[in-house]
Amino acid sequence: MLSPRSSSLSSSTPSETEALLAQIASYLNLPSASQPRTLAQLSGSPQLDGQQPSSLPASVSAEATRYDPLWQPSQVAGHRSWRSSSFSSSFLDAENSTSWDSAPVQRLKRRFGATCDHCRSVHLRCDLPSRSSSAAIPSSLPSVLDQIDQQQTAPAGSLSCSRCQAKGLRCTMTPTRASERTTAFNRSGSVIQKARSLHGSLAPAAPKMEEQASALITAVCAATAMRPTAFRITDRVMARSLTVRMLNCYFAVCHVQLPVVDYVDFRARFNAADGDPRRMSMLANAGRQHARAQDSSPHVIVGTPASTETLLAVLVAWAARYTDAPLAFGVTSQDAAGGSSSSSSPFSSPTESRRGSLATTTPPKRKRKRGVACDSCRLRRVRCDITEVVAGSSCSRCLEKGIYCTDEYIRSTQAKSKQKTSGDSSTSNNDGDSSSLSVAFNAFLDTSPSLTSSISLRAWMPSAEAVGGSGTHAQRSLAWRRGRQRKAFCLGALQHALDLANKHDLVNKPSVECIQVLTLLYSLVESIDPAQGQRLIRAACSHLEKLGLTAQMTLNLGDSNSVVNVLRTLQAHRSYTVPWCMDAIASVLLKRAPCFALEWIVQFEEHGQQQAQRPLLSLVPSQMSGLTQAAGVGLSITSMLQLGAVARSIGKHILMEQRVDKLQQACHTAWFSVDSVMSMSDRSASCVGSALDSMPALHPLGWVGITKVLASLLHLAIFRALSEQCAALAAQNVPDDLEAMQMLQSQGMLRAIESCRRTSHFIKVILPLGIIQFRGSTFKQIPHLAKFLAQVPTVAEPQGETDFQSQQHSPPMDALHSSDKRQGEVLKSVEGLGRAQLGPFTTAAKQREVEWLIAALLQLGYAWDEMPDEANDVQSLLHSQGL
User: Which terminus of the chain has a lower count of CB atoms within 10 Å, N or C?
Assistant: First the structure.
């Protein structure tokens, strides 16, 4: 049933139409429809005064005016002209074709998205857009259109089309979506937004590597800076995921090397304070005040907001060496090409890059290229130049549109092609290696999505066939190039941490966190600026003395409770023990005076011996977590402390001694002490390995390697001191002392050779395990071992013994071909590796053992860009000898 308004429209007669036209003409000062005039004459007609009353319903007048939306209200005052639309012209021609001149009828264009939901459902034309445009124009029409004005001035949402108004429905308009019937992708903005949502968005790329690195550093600073919560909260939230990943990486990789920060305490404070430095410092000092109120311990400031902020920045700077964050913003071709040029590196290979191989191999017949576009360009179906840029860089289209450039499809197709050609023989070993690497981070799992182009860590680890050095050329060049690409960000993050330390003047403000910051900065700066590193470690020593954190303790080997208590105490006082050990070893290697006055921290005693012990600081209850989680850290600190004590003894009794008899006694004592520490370390690793299987990050193989490298460095320091003393006696022309000194020098040389060779054999075992790749300051001294072995003269090949038979003297390598249980099997054989008989140091043995050390340097090149250069120097020494 039709409404009254609809019935009036349907039952309109010609007389009503004429009356409507007369009413409109009278309002517009036009002649009536009965006068036959053309439109040209109508424009010059005189104005008519007055307004004739309308006898038609308001709905009819409103419906008539709705058909002509092209009113010109600016011309209503004064001389008014009227131009009919195509719709009104056709309407007038149909109703009164005899009195109006017909206007040319134009076909209306089809409009998309201009229909309400009801009209779209019944597939009818809708007039809602026309009403909306009329409502947006201010009108001064008389009472004929008053009802329309009331509808137009109604509250928002009440405007409706004529059909919905007639049926009493609520007129709604839902924006039309793109048609899902066509699946072809185009180059529109919607596809670009989809690519950004899938692969991550990216700011416009900077023209230089330094500017790209500074953009990421700014994001890190936004999360570590002290500012109110409401100030730039967007930047803080965006950067928090990156900061959390960096902190997880530090405690998973770097913490075992320098356990100066208590992981349990730091994690609790960081999570409770939501990463805010001010709240973290308040929680740290509150816990210290609670402990001091119970046992009247001296006042010690754990940290301040400034020190906490700087500590977060230093941890990020350390973790930047072991993550892919430096490559997140891409690199420029010019900077990366400098590190991969074949002229500057002897290890360059034309087939080192997967993309370079795709770009250079051109088939004789032109075919369709497959697997030559990044993921986002494949989604948008556009041409991609990822095969023409340096590996690790973004394609030009992703850089232009701000999309993270990923190449998962290219890598998957290459893996499938390799699997078809080589079979499944090599995939089992690779799967085992990658699974063992992924387990190393399970203890510190990060659930945030990765926004970077991930790089397989397997690329820096040689396979079992490449351990001997035959298949590592492409990996050497890859490590060298990656190290150069990461250098800008790593140095920028380090500079940011140094700027914060100088800004807050942490050198002159003693606190526990300041000591941790200075120690970590010293380990990063010592190889770049030794003078500044010396200043930092001396400031840390001064803070320890001012706060009264120095301590000495005794260890009763016959009392198990004493061992447990000492390990707990070492973990609680790690802010003192770690800097002391670093300073002790560095003082011997660099031949400088130590910063700390105490010559030892832990002293062993037998049953019945009682020695004076300085009072120790009371331990905070939260720090006494036992040995379950930090057993690897405690044993690592214990081994390093013993080597530090040996280093202090070497510096006092060998480097400064002139008498030959005193030197002989001191050297034998030092050699015996180093061998004892190594034996204890091997036995501890074999015993504690089963207890640490659930904590791969604290696996003993890491700190066993640290102790072996440190022991070899101490042997080299003794040999260097004896060589200098021998040269001094030769200059003084003292025959008796010179002969004794030469014999002592030969003994020191043999012991140094044996220690370096055992370290090389141990490195050979752990090369495929990915342990060396995550090491730092201690393993960076491996070039000294490699250069020493490369320069040592060899012995003649024994009669009747081939090169294959000489390899039998080395430990068996069957453990290399296992997958998940490889580290456990290596741990069981660690003690046997230390006691195994080494074969003669022939030319073949020398080449093999030096190649193992070179492979270790190339793994270190993932984090330290200068290591491949050191490998080049060692390789040059071998080439000079014809090897």
Answer: N
Tokens of 758: 């055992």
- Structure-token pair, residue 767: 């090369």
Measured between alpha carbons, how far is 843 from 797 in angstroms, rounded to an integer? 8
Distance separating alpha carbons of residues 430 and 434, to the nearest angstrom: 6
The answer to whether the beta carbons of residues 826 and 677 sit under 8 Å apart is: no
User: Do 254 and 319 form a contact (C-beta atoms < 8 A)?
Assistant: yes
Number of H helices and E strands in the chain, helices first, is 36, 2
Which of 628, 639, 715, 641 has its CA nearest to residue 683? 639
DSSP 525-590: HTTT-HHHHHHHHHHHHHHHHHHT----EEEETT-HHHHHHHHHHHHHTHHHHHHHHHHHHHHHHT
C-alpha separations of 772 from 108, 398, 457, 829, 869 in Å = 75, 35, 12, 18, 17
Compute the radius of gyration of the chain from its Cα atoms.
41
C-alpha span between 707 and 713 (Å, rounded):
10
The Cα–Cα gap between 828 and 802 comes to 30
Q: How far apart are CA 850 and CA 215, in angstroms?
A: 41
Q: How far apart are CA 351 and CA 369, in angstroms?
A: 19
Which tokens hold the place of 638? 């214990």
* 577 φ, ψ (degrees, to nearest 5): -70, -40
> How far apart, in Å, do the first and last CA atoms of the chain sit?
104
Encode 65-97 in three state secondary structure: HHCCCCCCHHHCCCCCCCCCCHHHHHHHHHHCC
Residues 6+ apart with CB under 8 A from 876: 346
Q: Please give the model's pTM, rounded to 2 decimal places.
A: 0.56
The CA distance from 335 to 481, in Å, is: 10
327 SS3 class: helix
Query: How confident is the model at residue 323, as a pLDDT?
Result: 73
Give the whole-angstrom CA distance, residue 653 versus residue 669.
10
605 forms beta bridges with 556
Residue 556 main-chain phi, psi, to 5 deg: -90, 110
The whole-angstrom separation of Cα 612 and Cα 750 is: 39
Which amino acid, residue 852?
W
Q: At what angle do helices 58-66 and 14-27 cross, to 10 degrees?
A: 70
CA nearest 239: which of 311, 307, 313? 313
Contact 599, 646 (CB under 8 A): no
State the Cα–Cα distance between residues 582 and 579, nearest whole angstrom. Answer: 5
Q: Which phi and psi (to 5°) does residue 179 adopt?
A: -65, 135
Q: SS3 of 430, please?
A: helix
Give the residues of the chain that fall short of pLDDT 50.
1-12, 33, 36-103, 139-145, 147-148, 150-156, 180-185, 203-207, 223-238, 290-298, 328-362, 424-474, 607-630, 694, 696-697, 802-821
Distance CA 748, CA 52 (A): 125
Tokens of 748: 């020191």
Burial class (CB in 10 A: 0-12, 13-18, 19+), 565: middle
Give the C-alpha separation, 303 to 281, whole Å.
Answer: 5
CA atoms within 13 A on the CB side of 87: 11
Count of positions (residues) in the chain: 883
Question: What pairs with residue 604 in β-bridges?
Answer: 555
Sort residue 122 into left (φ over 0), alpha (ψ -120 to 50) or beta: alpha
Residues 360, 350: contact at Cβ < 8 Å? yes
Cα(865)–Cα(870) distance, rounded to whole angstroms? 10
Determine how many CB atoms are found less than 10 A away from the CB of residue 103: 16
Phi (first) and psi of residue 67, to 5 degrees: -75, -10
Helix (H) or strand (E) holding 602: strand 602-605
The contacts of residue 278 (CB under 8 Å, 6+ apart) are 226, 305, 308
Contact 512, 575 (CB under 8 A): yes
